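Write out the 3D structure for:
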Amino acid sequence: MLKGKTALVTGSTSGIGLAIAGAMAREGANVVLNGFGDAAEIETLRAAMAEDNGVEVRYSPADMTRPDEIAAMVADAGKEFGAIDVLCNNAGIQFVSPIDEFPVEKWNAIIAINLSSSFHTIRAALPGMKQKGWGRIIQTASAHALVASPFKSAYVAAKHGIAGLTKTVALEVARDGITINAICPGYVWTPLVERQIPDTAKARGITEEEVKRDVMLAAQPTKEFVTVEEIAALAIFLASDAARNITGAMLPMDGGWTAA
């Protein structure tokens, strides 16, 4: 379905981003991976993804807090492949704390990576998409783009910002053959979620098992974590021609969390 196209997926060396990148490659897209991690492990991932799917896979170590590095990543992808056809903004970090104890540097980092980086990638990628008359931008937002939870002021603010950015860009490019949508997952079992469990337990004064049962899955009527494969499948649909009239949408995949 995506043969001959190029997908850039930020934050794609693990978790949701890696699942999306793998799905794009299986559909025939060339892929640009991005994210932090052990260099040897990332190279193993890159080489396996390329060999298994018969596509070109590149890796960019661009720091998503640095606009200059983001711009260079997009420019390099353009030089290599002609243009970015599918942009998946997935990079994200989390920190849990009462707001009056929230470290300023953590706030700044979360806003930079979870929100501002999407502005910079979109700004850089849109000219190429407009020139081709086709593009897909897929944002990994969160149920927290739609509702709030305590102790996550920066994350909730950033994800609400992603919702506003997505809607605004959708209106601007509606006649250019470009769509932009945001997937809003509930709790997904990823390294990011796993790492926040101890902090949430400390902030709330409960056990880690209680965090999973009474905090995370309490909001999801299905009582199940969303899987990365489910999110990747939705991303593939949004990249398809069948989804050409879906744009500016916040698409919950949250086990019914935001239905209440």
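The beta strands are 6-9, 30-34, 57-60, 86-89, 135-140, 178-185, 250-253.
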